[in-house]
Amino acid sequence: MNAHRLYTPAVLAAATRLASFTLDSRFSIRGEARSPSCGSRVELGLLLGEGGKIAEVGIAAHACAVGQAGAAVFAESAAGRDAQDIAAANAAMEEWVRRDGPQPDWPGLDLIAPARAYPGRHGAMLLAWNAAANALRPMVREG
Q: CA Rg, the chain, in Å?
């Protein structure tokens, strides 16, 4: 595989969509994640609405195009999900990316799926889900 397959025009375009999810002081619920393999990092903010469901997402990404595209995929479909949903999605993403599990039911993942072939990009793929899970961890009900 080569970088041309990894950094497709669609991945690069998705990375630019993060501009629609500005992180600012309105976001009181915050989480961060960093990829130890590449140093990419994401800071994420959430506004919760009725029933503790995500109403709005803000992201500041200091990541490669794969990490930025993954963050955009996360942000575009996070609304309406609660802490339990995010914890389950984060676990499913870890299983998919790191242990070759089934692709989670999250819209847009086909976009970053080719990065699974690059272990050095696994951490970048997971940044937004990890940051959101970190932000919402205090709200997850013990099962």
A: 14
